[in-house]
Amino acid sequence: MRKNSVKNIRINESVKEELSNIIRNVVKDPRIAPVVSVTEATVATDLKTCRVMISVLGDEKAKADTMEGLKSSAGFIRHMLAVNLNLRNTPELHFKLDESIEYGVHMSKRIDEVMEQDRKRHAEED
Question: For the structural domain made of 6-99, what CATH number should be given?
């Protein structure tokens, strides 16, 4: 199975959706923040491993606690994934913190600030 084959893309999407449901509705670890999103799930072509990108809304402590909770719950989450999805192999999950959404929001705010300063400067010149 090639890396970007239709089958691989379909498996990635199925795993992503199922992981979102499991983390949101099944896992009861109090360390996991209430607002957690699975932004990407990339399953290796041999179905042995899966890199799961997680976005957490909150401060640095909430992010660290959530990642710790997910790593300690990885075995249970993998078991639930095996129960809910019919894959030849259930991949080992590797959780990574995805800060791209937060970075995008930060850059958007910075652009808005610069645009506002530019408007003020043009208003003063006129």
Answer: 3.30.300.20
